[in-house]
Predict the structure of NADH dehydrogenase type II.
Amino acid sequence: MPLLYGASCSDMDEGYLITGFVSSVHALGRQRQVPLVSRKPNTPNFRPQRSARVVQRTHKLRGLRLCEGERLVKTDEKPAVQPDTQPLKPGDGKESPAPPSPPPPVETRGRRRTYLGLVWDRTLDTFEDALLHLRRQFFWQGEFLSSSGRPKPRLVILGTGWVGHAMVKIIDIDKYEVIVISPRNYFLFQPMLPSSALGIVEFRSCCEPILRANPFIIYYEAEAVGVDIQRRVVKCRAKVRRRGALSVGSESDVGAPSLAETSQDVHALQPRFSTKSNTDEIIGIREFEVPYTYCVVGVGSAVNTFNTPGAKENCFFLKEIPDARKIRSEVVRIFEEANLPETSDEERSRLLHFVVVGGGPTGVEFAGELHDFLVEDAVKYYKKLLKYVQVTLLQSGQSILTQFDKSLQDRALQNLRDAEINVRTGSRVVRITETEIYLQDGAVIPYGMCVWAAGVGPQKLVTDLIESIPAQTTFKKRQLVVDDWLRVIGAEGVFAAGDCATNLHEPLPATAQVAGQQGAYLARLLNREYCLDCDIPERTEYTRTWIDRARFAKPFQFLSFGLLAYIGRERAMAQIEMGDTSVKLSGTLTYLIWRSVYAVKQVSMRNRILITFDWIKAAIFGRDISQF
Ligand SMILES: Cc1cc2nc3c(=O)[nH]c(=O)nc-3n(C[C@H](O)[C@H](O)[C@H](O)COP(=O)(O)OP(=O)(O)OC[C@H]3O[C@@H](n4cnc5c(N)ncnc54)[C@H](O)[C@@H]3O)c2cc1C
């Protein structure tokens, strides 16, 4: 599919456009055709030859190359392309048609080398990060002035998720004053949430306090409610709790559960499930502003119920630790209620019908974990109730786990059916009441507990920010549109990464892998002190080292390691990617790989040890079913 690529070249301008399609090769081997247009047609001092060199160099950095026959033309010249092959402009709302001639074939060897080059780059980056980390750990003196004696530029990071955590681990605090603002004072390893919701791992084992990741940053427990890009300030709001501790939310939330403790867009709507005590009552709101030199928006995404009536009020979500805690309590509570002597058989069947909405990785993993809980632990404690238990997975599309290869999708489906999970594809939920789920095809499903795992939407902060930046509104996206260096288009000094950001010509999946890599990339971009206002971030004065050689900042490139998902019955699926090669695995051995990868990918040694002990504990003693 032809896509727009902002040429991003500082001296490519004064009425000039580069036209013509560029046949290009993505570093990971995806092939595409890219029409090239300048972002700044009116910039003075245009030097065509230099521009062409810079573009070629940039494309080389990106693993792309220019097509033969491409040329620079003035804007007032008629472009040398067919009228129906004009490049797509942001906000056009339509795709540009196919290029006039097919791109030349690409050698697999060349692509593989690019992939290995990327792996090598990352290895060097990691080495550099480790050196920085050690220097900070043992030699940092707590200097709040830069080496020149001037105050340091201030970097404000919004969010303590994958983006925020990766950044604070790597950022050079000798060069920046770092302020992190988030309603959650810890990093959460979301991939472990389905396991923690059913008691295999403890909640605290999947979290790391953000100040533990880097004790030299400043952290404010508050919600960012706006970013004023003209004044370069972040507007924040913090809730004051009865006991003086801080939490966050809006004025209308006073007296309601805190945003920090439930899924973002449903926090005020779940009185039915609220387990909070009076000590959490919010008694006041504090508002303040934080000026920034650079601001990184990494606020992730919110639960999306697609405005399905009754979903917010009656479903459980799986996004934050309190969500997982509520699910764990509710599963046990349902068994206890069904176990009461006066509960009728009909009521037992309804209560013990667990429904999961969404056939993506989160929904499938949760259904798999629920099955394991039933056959490994519920069978011991509630044996006589098991005949009433049913698990249903509803998926609106025709297949589950669509991110995976078709053969793996089929294996996952078979595994779930073997586990007696009723998988209903092509079943769109249209309404949910306290006791029934209504499907588009007219079916009505009585249920006891419904977990909604069917998609994510934008955070309010992101929606507001998009509306306040004219350039962003033209893209008509629900995420902040960033350029190849993760700079928010139309907002100087603002960067965005992770679930809340997208790049028009290379949209990436909303995953932890992408968010973590983008956070680390941004920290390195800032550490290396490129000119971030230049079209291509560049530095003229720097010391070349064997690790850090580049004068121009390389655009962000995602290095995919593949996909992993747990599918229940101690089986997992893996689609491991190495450049063009993809290895597909599934079964019990893959389950061991899944566990090893999750243990290794924990963000600290403490978490690795805690998770491993939790697994051992659950294997020996079973899941903890105490209700608090
Ligand atoms: C149950 C579950 C399982 C998953 N499993 C996987 C998996 O196996 N593999 C995978 O790759 N991905 C997985 N994901 C997706 C992955 O977790 C996300 O893609 C990733 O968390 C995105 O990182 P992020 O930094 O953009 O946002 P997040 O990690 O969501 O962090 C957002 C941060 O911003 C904070 N915040 C929110 N609003 C504001 C505000 N207004 N002001 C300041 N701070 C704010 C939040 O408190 C949070 O700290 C899973 C997600 C879930 C929910």
Observations:
- The first strand starts at residue 5 and ends at 6.
- Residues 1-112, 244-262, 264-278 have pLDDT under 50 and may be disordered.
- DSSP finds 15 helices and 31 strands in the chain.
- The pocket of flavin-adenine dinucleotide is lined by residues 158-163, 181-184, 190-191, 193-194, 223-224, 298-300, 318-319, 361-362, 459, 461, 498-500, 510-513, 515 (CB under 6 Å).
